[in-house]
Amino acid sequence: MQEAYKNFTTAVYVTVGDVINIRDFDEFEKTFEHISGPVHIDKVYLEYWRGNQWADKEHMLKVKEFFEKKGIKTSGGITTTAVGTEGFESLCYSNPQHIADLKKAVELCAQTFDEFIFDDFYFTNCRCENCIKAKGERSWSEFRMDQKLEVTKETVMKTAKRINPGVNVIIKYPQWFEYYNETGYDLVNEPKYFDSIYTGTETRNPEYSQQHLPKYLGYFIMRYLESAAPGRNLGGWFDPFDCNYNLTSYLEQGYLTLFGKAKEVTLFCLGALRKETPWRLMAPAVGEAFRECDEYLDKLGNPVGAAAYRPGGARGENDLHSYLGMCGIPLEPCIDYPTDAGTVFLTEGASADREIFEKMKETMLAGGECIVTSGFVRKNAERFKLEFVNVGVSDRRAFVREYAGTHNNGINLNGRVAGFDTILIPQVDYCNNDIWELAAGYAKYNNFPIVLRTRYGKGHISIITIPDNMGDLYNYPAEVLNVIRDLFTHELPFKLLGGAGIMLFAYDNDTYILRSDLPYSESVTLEFSPEVKSVNEGRRGFELKLNDQKQLKMPLMPGMNMIIKVTR
């Protein structure tokens, strides 16, 4: 077994089917070594119930004893799924039998363990006649959140605490946070009732998978859920599914989970990662990734970035933060408005906050920067014009492929730079000489703003045009992305100059990670501010030499992490 990691712990989730199938312990130990050999395992989550499968308590105790004799901690697990034929079917919380089954599972976990976790199926998508009747005039999201909170308080927590007052009950949230409310997850109120939360950091190929989730999401959601339950977000959890096309896509989940400062990492699941499965390479590979991360995680400070405010339950421009993260923009997500932030980023989802305009005013009057999207402007059309600047998003669209920037803050456009493909953007209407175009897209005998900016009080407000297909952000050329990136990163000691597909992670001790998600080697340029005294490679500490323009050209290979330390 590998030595324990210094900066995090690891766990493996064992589904009820695998618990039931552990009969010959000597034989199982040989199988388990395929995982525990390359990966140090601190804990296992042993599942009691999933769908129509139950683990026998007597057998569970034997399995528990097996792991504990090996020095591995044990916790319980519950997956609240029904047996159905249409996608993932949840329990029906209007069904007394389902409630009774849930209570039984909680009782078994609380009797057997001092900690147990709900896998991320603790939601409801039921629309049976009983649920339709119980919903009444409420929306489905309102009904489901109300119903789930009642079940959490009365069935889960009361039962668990009655049996084991000290038990730690954990809810693991899935990675699709933009859609929580529709299935009953309430990120504002629900964490108040559970002892701890856990984060799903799984990502999928955004082009070919039903869950089209850009890779940066694995980092972003780790930080977002930390803001929802500070100090009680115990770790990140990911799986190997849909990752066979590229082993690096699996490892990337682990890297980004740890870059987001997860205390623990859970691998799902024992059955999938064993030697006899299509995912047999995953455990040996992730073990090496964990060892690599452990070498430098203690050199990183606390994550920082432009404050990305998304209220609990917000909807609109879903996944946009992760697409921008893939363009080299470091973000620090916030579930509460960041009143002390110097730069605040607001997508359409921020409109869910009814006081958002008053909060924006306070930020900018104090000298801060507010960056909004074309979706935010469209959502708040008349109020935005009334309060800030006469900018609107029309119903018209434009195809663009070539772009221009400015050297004099928008008085004139200059240059003509090709993008990677023709893209469709909304036409943003603005008033000449009242707000300034910092980047534009050329069309036939016309041009349309990509970045607009103007002063408001002591601060500024900027507007970014988001393509109809968010993935087309990657088709903006480096010259446009540099302008957008500069809005978010002006507080950093350098500018990242380059195209999309490069992620930048920033920490408050002036340590930074650059990671390429491109399928080919690419160089980016870092342009440092005059205050920077030296730049060092972050692992071994040797100095990186800058040219006369205080620039560093940095080659990045696919799937590799480059760590730098800046001294000001």
Please describe what this structure looks like.
This protein is α/β, with parallel strands linked by helices. The protein folds into three domains: about 10-300, Alpha-Beta Barrel (TIM Barrel), CATH 3.20.20.80; about 305-490, 3-Layer(aba) Sandwich (Rossmann fold), CATH 3.40.50.880; about 490-568, Golgi alpha-mannosidase II (Immunoglobulin-like, Sandwich). It is about 30% helix and about 30% strand. It has 15 helices and 26 strands. It has a nine-stranded mixed β-sheet with strand order 12-11-13-14-19-18-17-15-16. Strands 1-2-4-5-6-7-8-9 form an eight-stranded parallel beta barrel, surrounded by four helices. A five-stranded antiparallel β-sheet has the order 10-21-22-26-24, with no helix packed on it. α11 links the parallel β11 and β12. α4 (about 95-110) packs parallel to α6 (about 140-165) and α8 runs parallel beside α10. The chain starts with 8 loop residues before the first strand and ends with a strand. The model has no long low-confidence stretch (mean pLDDT about 95).
List the helices and strands and how they pair.
Layout: E1 9-14, H1 16-21, H2 25-36, E2 43-50, E3 53-54, H3 57-69, E4 73-79, H4 96-112, E5 115-118, H5 129-135, H6 140-163, E6 168-173, E7 196-200, H7 217-228, E8 233-238, H8 247-259, E9 264-268, H9 270-273, H10 282-296, E10 303-304, E11 306-309, H11 320-325, E12 331-334, E13 343-346, H12 356-365, E14 369-373, H13 374-379, H14 381-387, E15 392-405, E16 414-429, E17 436-443, E18 446-456, E19 459-464, H15 478-489, E20 494-497, E21 502-507, E22 511-516, E23 522-528, E24 534-537, E25 551-556, E26 561-567
Parallel strand pairs: 1-2, 1-9, 2-4, 4-5, 5-6, 6-7, 7-8, 8-9, 11-12, 11-13, 13-14, 14-19
Antiparallel strand pairs: 2-3, 10-21, 15-16, 15-17, 17-18, 18-19, 20-23, 21-22, 22-26, 23-25, 24-26
